[in-house]
User: Fold these one by one.
Assistant:
Number 1:
Amino acid sequence: MTRISSNGSNKKKEEVHVANGGLKQSAWSKALSSRAVWDDKDEFLDVVYWFRQIIAIILGVIWGIVPLKGFLGIAIFCMVNAGVLYVYFSSFQQVDEEEYGGTWELTKEGFMTSFALFLVVWIIFYTALHYD
């Protein structure tokens, strides 16, 4: 089934995917619904990756405002980041970890990128608020 854009142009047709008699859910709507069915493994890995980036930004801002310093801040970030994502994919989504290469593969998906983002946000906020 296709839908023609508002200007009626045939060049700008959008595919409307129909699965099992209904419209296909977006990745984010599936990400926020419990026990969603993930037909595409890469789609779920993308959601895990982007959730991790969101967590990194939020924790970086909080750590910069609080102000946390040093190894304690890094250690707490690592535990919270890994813990939240583990609870997300094992309890909320209840995916079979073995389909994605095991628990460790899902736990480390996008971790280093989120760690770098966390450090940048933490340093910027800490420096802006607490450095004379």
Number 2:
Amino acid sequence: MRLPPARGSITEALFDLLRGPAGTGPPDEVVATAAAGLDDDDAQLALFACYELHYQGFDEVDDRWEWDPALLGFRAVLERRFERSLAAAVPRPDSLDPAGLRAALTALTCPEEEPLLSLFLQREASLNNFREFVMHRSIYHLKEADPHTWAIPRLSGGPKAALVEIQSDEYGGGRRERMHSELFRATLRGLGLDDAYGAYLNRVPGVTLAISNAMSLFGLHRRWRAALLGHLAAIEMTSSLPNRRYAAGLRRLGAGPVTVRFYDEHVQADAVHEQIAANDMCGAFATAFPACTGDIVYGAACALELERRWAEHVMSCWQRGTGSLRAQPVPA
């Protein structure tokens, strides 16, 4: 993956820096003006790029930037402001009795209203709508499970075993062709799209990048490990029904079994993962660390709020008859 086009003063300065030799930090004025609103294109892309150095990286960026002290300081500024934006959008709950954790997670993940986006994709979406949808989703699904895997060395005992069980399924039980990221590549190809890692990074808006950035924030900081567990639990507890609808929508549009398999797999796998995540992982962790129960619920609430904002953006664009992606940059 190559660095995408800059989206403002922050990414312009950051990307110019990353294309050079490691060892010189971002200009002070860039650090001072950095913001990280939940839908800010420039700030979310800058934070995403900083995090990506811990994943696959960028072709033209020296790997030594990953642990460059000055760059980490710049990332910390973005993170602090991102955390404040999350806290403003999602109230931090108090700790609760571990015995009530499952009920709290269930209450969060059972919406009073049907999610409009999954219903639309099932019943009405065009092929172009579906292509847009998977382009957005490619930002996470082509690295599926990776952000949550950061928690494994930070756990022990039952919660660690439970997370490994979930992640083993995400990675195909050791078989490449069954890895969820590979199944999603097949979906992209079946819809006539580019299956390369990061192929659509330059097209997705900040509200999409914020979803991945929250996972990386929680995953890369041990202090957020409980929030990361709650984040994963929320994903697993809200996955089966939407994925069933996505699969039905693709079949309605004539997609074949290879294209649909990613969604079919999640209908089955996540029904099992929901129980493991809520009980064996989060429940056991809460019993061992009662003071962290509030963070577990907070992580789940952040996942759901960012997903809600993203879905609202996509649906509002489609209802207006416009695309939900950024315009294709004109080649230099």
Number 3:
Amino acid sequence: MQPPRILSIAGSDSSGGAGIQADIKTITMLGGYAMTAITAITAQNSLGVTMVEALSPEMVGAQIDACVSDIGVDAVKIGMLGSAAIAHAVADRVEALGVPIVFDPVMVATSGALLADSETVAAFARLMTLASLTTPNVLELHALGGHDVMTSRGIAYLAKGGDADGQMVEDRLVMPGCEPVVWAAPRIDTRHNHGTGCTLSSAIATGLGAGLPLEEAIVRGRAFVRAALESAPGYGAGHGPMGHQAVR
């Protein structure tokens, strides 16, 4: 069988731990074919982000068009966008694709660097409506209005608990008209957790692109992230990268 074609629309992480680089590793290790539309270039490492330069909305759109028109696409992962104009350019293209879309509403890097301004965050509403699943962490969920506002949108979202306090990590799947589904597991005590959100969202997108049901794609994605955390190579003096290469 041919591998599922997964298009990652996200920013580039020069240190390889998050963003497009983490997505390519994840998609490949999970048996998918990775394509990319880079939204922004960042200079960053395990200690933080030192510079961000967004591409033009036209260039982002051209990358998407080039992939879709020739290779085709089975699922889309959307991460860091860089500007409100890019967010709308992406929405203009993905709304007509008819494939699963996983939207990771990236606002703040693991190091704490701001990666989305208020205008960009406001544009997220359109993408959340189009997405099959939105995957906010604790801070992102709060910025998007919390559980009450997210539930009122009538969308499916996975509230991630990795950056919450406590020895157990709880992820909560909320879908319209359904009881929440909760997964909990002991926290893996490591500072090498750069790119967990990027990795999880691209893993879920790969599962959906391969035809897995949503809950099964989430279960496999969570397992992949935990295995990558446990296999981190120990690089960097701060929030180091995970060990995607070791996951089988």
Number 4:
Amino acid sequence: MRWSPFKVETAAPMDAVKDYKLKHLSHPRLPMLAAHLRDIAGANPQLYDLYTQREKMEPKLRHTRSMYLASPRMEPHKVISRTSDTANILDCVRTRVYERFAPAIDEVVEIVRGELGVTQIGRIFITKLLPRSTIDPHIDQGEYFKFYHRVHLPLQTQPGCAFTVDDHNEELVEGDLYVLNNCLMHSVANPSEKDRVHLILDVA
């Protein structure tokens, strides 16, 4: 079944269930799908240049570049944590980039639905952290993150690339799923000579 977003009427009490730092899950299909998505992203680097305002407005993201597959109905480069327009920030739709990654992205979404039991998909984007750079420690705040969990699927990573959540530090594995508690302080380091590339899905 292909994913179709639907309008969110009420916010879910996500804070009550965020009793973890970084949940790790695996699925036999995900490594192949992750490699396929990585190859598509690598063949279409111009998609990272469609929306760059988020990186320009958020200093902690200055070393990242992102391509948006699904976003709030408002422009995808808006800094959604700073708006009070709850309906528009929770109700997400596919962008024109989405179909570039189908049908692999459809299958990833369905696996995430099945593994995590989620019913709502928020933003979906592929983001790269540039070589020898970091994402500074921060907490994701605002109405959007009271509703959505953030799920990472590493598409390309190298030894030494580490995710730190609170006091937990971990090198993530390509093709595995990670549910991040981004209500805790977290940061990322990429000391390698290559881009670190993740698919990120927000789910509820």
